[in-house]
Amino acid sequence: MMNDERSEALQLFLRILRPMEVTIFPLRDFPLINPGDDLGAILIKELQKIDLIDGDIIVIAHTIVSKAENKVYNLREITPSSFAKQIGELQDKDPRKVEVVLRESREIIRMNERVLISETKHGFICANSGVDKSNTPGETVIALPDDPDLSAQRIRNRILSELGKTVAIIISDTFGRPFRVGTVNVAIGVAGINPVEDLRGRFDLFGYEMQSTIVAKADEVSTAAGLVMGQADEGTPVIIVRGVKYSHVEASVGVLNRDPDTDVFR
Amino acid sequence: MMNDERSEALQLFLRILRPMEVTIFPLRDFPLINPGDDLGAILIKELQKIDLIDGDIIVIAHTIVSKAENKVYNLREITPSSFAKQIGELQDKDPRKVEVVLRESREIIRMNERVLISETKHGFICANSGVDKSNTPGETVIALPDDPDLSAQRIRNRILSELGKTVAIIISDTFGRPFRVGTVNVAIGVAGINPVEDLRGRFDLFGYEMQSTIVAKADEVSTAAGLVMGQADEGTPVIIVRGVKYSHVEASVGVLNRDPDTDVFR
């Protein structure tokens, strides 16, 4: 990566030439995170290798946040309930993993012999409450952080105090979608960025006032970061997204969850 | 924009320094498209102003494709059915617009006094069959192109024959999502890019074979382009996404639509 004065001059030059350009790049060779690691300290050390600038958005795969926060379950220590055993039999899955999924959930939204879609304690609706086996060694599973906004806020504050840079932090996970095949990265925790951008009241090309457009800005950024984050053996859990215009108004990632009372898909 | 030799050298320099970087930038000052315009010719003229390179993905807002293809309905020529009138009354909407929505749909998926979610003739599930009033002058509405893959393929072929560049084309629209607030750009037509990337069979960081990850690559790219495309008065309907690794295997955008028979949200 570039980390000297020439690189800063080059960045400035490019930003003048292409003021609407967004760039997305990884923190390369990011170290493996183990349970209990001080992720903030490791992240800051890695960020010092690049030319971080005010306004950058740092998108972090939730797995490394969860690991650092010990949100890892050792399946050998899990005793499945009879309900978890029933589901495990139905879906041909480890009943101990199902037990963790149920513990992390608030409500089951849909279930059959293939999928278990639940609402997590945070209000996210996703497969298996976000509990994942992939990328975990041994008989362990990773769940979502307990309070991802707080996790993001802590990292943001630390970057501000130790590096003097004002950035936004998004913690992301890959979710499937109803009706559409395939996963995309979405935001599950934010700090320093309003997760939604409300265009209502703005005017379109022909002067019509826009009636209904709310843009899921934090999801847009997360999904864009997914292009570089990769999914398999590449190991790039931290991505910088640069050049995005966004509102710094503080709001919880929870504003991205639809009100259950008015959601036609509940 | 940069379009001389210095700019090409600079691009090359950056690509060597940051091989995993993705950049997203608009075709600036893209002309307004009117019904019947030769979009391919206009696009090629604009692309000659930038340093287009092999592998670039060009994301095009469906509105300009629809306009060029005359998929614009003049509401003065629409006679609403009694069903359209009923819905119009329920939702306090112009029954002629509802009539167009119904004509563009194959099936109503959910409906109440606020929303009409339908399956389009192409198999997409979205609000109002993708029919939109915004950004259209006068009493007209814009629908989705009849065959967006074909529209994309024609543009791609023309760029190959006239500019000698092998690119991918994605035609995009902004869709709302079940469970999550806000819209994001998704792919509704593709050429030269496999809309999905199948990671099953690859191995994760710890050597576990991945079981279920299919990435919605064309949606990832579309959503990323949405960061620059903007929604309101900015008028940047054509976005270049550069540096994304993708499969050139030809497949219809329809592979992004879940099989209705196994979709738990139908």
- If classified by CATH, what would the architecture of the largest domain in chain A be? 2-Layer Sandwich
- Pattern of helices and strands of chain A: HEHEHEHHEEEEHEEEEHE
Number of domains of chain A: 2
Strand content of chain A: 15-25%
Question: Helix proportion of residues of chain A, in percent?
Answer: 25-40%
Strand order of the biggest β-sheet of chain A: 1-12-2-8-9
Largest interface: A-B, 76 and 77 residues
Multimeric organization: homodimer
| Rg from Cα of chain A | 20 Å
Assign the CATH superfamily of the largest domain in chain A.
CofE-like
Describe the largest sheet of chain A: 5 strands, mixed
Q: Uncertain spans of chain A, ≥5 residues at pLDDT below 50?
A: none
Structural class of chain A: alpha+beta
Please give the CATH class of the largest domain in chain A: Alpha Beta
What coarse outline of chain A follows from CA principal-axis ratios?
globular
